[in-house]
Design goal:
Blueprint (H helix, E strand, L loop, with lengths): L12 H37 L5 H5 L2 E3 L9 E3 L5 H6 L11 H10 L2 H9 L4
Helix pairs in contact: 1-4, 1-5
């Protein structure tokens, strides 16, 4: 049985390794930024649905931004009564109960495409 040998020379391996390392750092940062944009948009929708008679509640909405390490953004309301207004069905002249939940549920169907749009041109 004859042995076949082939010499293979890799050129640019160091450059390719460096490029991959840069991408490994860039991608999570860009995804975090895109996630923050989508979370901020969702917060705005939730604020539009927050009952107006609770202006302080509406103004207390904030996004705890994602980082490259966490890749998680959190939308919160910073009043003691936020959970009550959110969870207790009541008639509001302007706004609705479940204001944050409904904004999140509406985003669910478009989240992937919203993230893709936010990432377009970044990578």
């Amino acid at each position: 049985m004859a042995r076949v040998s082939a010499d293979v020379t890799l050129t640019g391996l160091s450059r390719a390794t460096n490029q991959l390392r840069l991408l490994a750092e860039l991608i999570p940062r860009q995804v975090a930024q895109a996630l923050n944009e989508v979370a901020e948009e969702t917060k705005t929708v939730a604020q539009e649905r927050t009952p107006v008679e609770f202006g302080v509640l509406k103004a207390s909405a904030k996004v705890d931004h994602a980082t490259a390490a966490t890749l998680a953004a959190t939308i919160t309301y910073g009043t003691e009564y936020a959970i009550y207004v959110h969870e207790v069905p009541a008639r509001h002249v302007v706004g609705q109960w479940k204001f944050l939940e409904s904004a999140m549920n509406d985003r669910q169907g478009t989240f992937a495409s919203d993230m893709a749009n936010a990432l377009r041109g970044r990578l």
